[in-house]
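>> received
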Amino acid sequence: MTTQIDIFADLSGRQKEAVQHREGPLLIVAGPGSGKTRVMAHRIAYLTSVEGVAPWRVLAVTFTNKAARELRERAEGLVGGANSGLQVRTFHSFCAFVLRQDGGQVGLDPAFSIYDGDDQQRLVRTILEELELDPKQFAPRAILSGISDAKNKMLDDSRLAKLSKSYFEEVVARVYARYTELLATANAVDFDDLLLRTHTLFEDHPDALEKYQDRYRHVLVDEFQDTNAIQFSLARLLAAKHNNICVVGDPDQSIYSWRHADIRNLTDFQTVYPGATTVTLDQSYRSTQTILNAASGVIANNDDRLKKNLWTENDKGSPVTVGEAYDEDEEARVVLQEISRLVDEEDFNRQEIAVMYRTNAQSRAMEAACNRHGVTYQLVGGTKFYERKEIRDSVAYLRLTVNPSDDAALERIVNVPARGISPRSVDAIRTVARNRGTSMLNVILQVDDEELGLFEAINPRAVKSVRGFADLMERLIEQSIILSAVELLDLTLERSGYKRLVQEDKERGEERWDNILELRGSASNFEGPEPRERLIEFLENVALVSDIDSLEEGEDAITLITLHQAKGLEYDAVFMIGLEEGLLPHSRSLESSADLEEERRLCYVGMTRARKRLYMFHAFQRGFRGSRGAMMPSRFLDEIPLACVETVSIRRNSNNVRKVAPAGSTSRAYDPTAVKRRAATSAQVRAAQRGDYRVADRVTHETFGDGIVIEAVETGGDTEVTVAFGNGNGLKKLMAEFSGLKKVTPTDSTKAKREDPELGDAFLDAP
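>> returned
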C-alpha cells in the first residue's frame, strides 16, 4: 500500500512543498528540467491517497497527448493503479469530452466531427467560390487565420463585421459567417470551436458548469505560460467553486504568442489570485551547470519574466561549443561530423541527439547531408502519418459513417476509388445540399427523388454511380453501430474497393498497405463495449494527434526538429543551427521588444533541451526561399557568458570540429567578444563602411577563394579586413592594400534578390 513516505520519497524540499499543498490556488514556477511532471504526478497521488480525494474528482490538463499519457502513467504507477478514473487530458480533448456529453445545449450532436487544417481549407475554398472571390487574392490560410483570431477574441462573425477596418477584414467576416453555417450543417467543429463552444456552454448554461465544478474538486494545468485567454477562463470557471487551482509553468518558456498564448496568464496569476501560494522549482535534474549558466545568461536579458536562478547537482560539464560556418552546407557537414564523433568516440546514442532550427525550411541542408552520408534521421513535422493519403482516405470513410453530415469527409472519398462521380457531379450534389440546407450524403441517399433535380444536373451513368455509393454508405452506417473500429475499417476497405486500389499500386502499394495496417493497429486500442462510442473516441484521438505524439521513440536515428516542436523534449546532445540575425531572432521580431523577448525565450528553450552537450552554430552566408545573402551572428550568442563558451574553427579538410586556432594565427574562429560588433542591426551594418570595404561585401582571393567581409577597420592608412572564406578556409584577417583581395561586382539579376520577403533585413543588402 502506498504511504505518505512513498509519495515524498526522493523529492526535494521545494518539490515536497508543492506536492503537499492542500487547499487554495497554487503557482508552481518550474524551470527546465526541474521535475515538474514528477511534481504533478506526486501531487495527484498525494491528493488521492493522503487527502482522500477520489481520483475522478481531479482534472489535470496538459498540452500534448504525449504529456498527458506520461503524467497519467506516473500518477497511476505511484499508487498501484488506485488512480484509475483519473482525468488527464489535453485542453482540446477535455473540451471534446464535455461537448460529447453536453454539446446538445450549444447545438452539437454527440457524433460531431473535428475538422483539421486540410478540412478547413477545403471548406473555405468552396465558400470563396460560392462568394465569387479569387483564392489567389484571398488565400484560404490567411482567411482561416483571421477567423481563428476572431474566435480567440470570442468574436462572432457579426461582431467581427462591425469591427472590420479593411476590405480584407470584411471578406474574412463574410467567409466566417458562411463557414459557421456550413460547420453547423456538417455537425462539425474546428480546433478553436472546441474551446469556444465549451466556454459558451459554461457561460450560458450555469447548470452545465456546475455539473463539472461539482465533479472536479482540484484542477491542475501544466504549461500554463502557453494558455490563451479562453483556456485560462475555462480553468478559472472550473475551479471557481472549490478554488483549488494549481498551475505549473515557466514564463521563460512562453513561445506560442502566435497561437494566442498569453504570458501574462502566468506572470499575473498572483494578481488574479491574491492569496496564491508560489513555489519556485529552480533545481535542474537535466542539464549540466555550464549549460544552465549559458542559458541563464541569455534569458537574463528579458524584462518580462519571473526571475529564478537555475542550479544543479549534476557535473559542471563541457563548455557550450559555439561554431561558425561559411554556409548552410558546411554547417550541416560539420554538425554530422561531430555527431559521428560523439557516437563513435563517446558512446552517444543517435536517438539522444537532436538538431534544432528556427524554421522548417532550414532542415533542407541537414536532410541532404544526412542522405549523402547515410545518416538515419527522423524529421518531426515532415509528412505526418495521419496526413498520408491512404490514412486520410480511410479515416474519412469512418468519419462519414459516424457523422453522415460530414461533407468534408464525403467530398474526399465520394470518388475514391474512382467510381464515375465527376467533379461536376459533386458540384451539383453540393449545390442541391446547400440550397436545401442539408448534408451532401443526405442528398445522395435520396438520389432517386425527382424533386431534388439531380437527374437534370448529372448524367445517367453518374446517377448509377451515386446510387452505388449511397448503398455502400447505408451498409457501413448500419454496421458502425455494432462493429468495432477494426472490424468496420476492414469492412470499409473491402466493400469500397480501397484495399484493392492500394494493393494494385505497383510502386508504393506495399508501403501504403503497411501504413493502413498501422492504422488498424491503432484502432485495435479502442475495443470494448459500446463499439460506436469507442469508434468516436478513436476518430477523436486521430483528429487531436500532434507532431510530437508521432515522434518515434527508440529509433536509432538523430532527430531534426524545430525549436517550437522541441518544447518539452530533452536530448543528451543538442545542435542548434542558424543562430543568425533574421533567423534567430527572426526578422519579424526586430521591430517589437515583446516579440524579441519571445525569440530569446525560444533560444532559451532550445539551449535547455540539452543534458550533456550543447552546440550552437551560425553561418556567414545562407540561402533561403530562393535568395542567398550574408548573415550576421545572432545577438543571443553574445549574451552567453564567456566562461561557458568553447569556440571552434570549421575547416573542410578536418575530420571533425577543431578548437579555436592558437593566438596570433590569421585564421580566426568565432570570437564571442566581437559578436556584438558584428551582430548589429541591419541598418547599422549598412552604415558600417570602412574605406573601400564594408560589412557584407562579397570578395574573392586568389588563394582562399570567395568570401564575405564581416569586419573592416581602418589602421594606419590601410584597411584591415576580416573575411569569412568558403571551402574550409575559415576566417582570415587581411590588409586590403597588399592582400590581393578583390571585391565582387554584383550582377543586375542578383541585385534583384537582395532582400528575402521572409527574412527581410537579414540579407543585409548583400548580392
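>> The CA atoms of residues 393 and 412 lie 7 Å apart.
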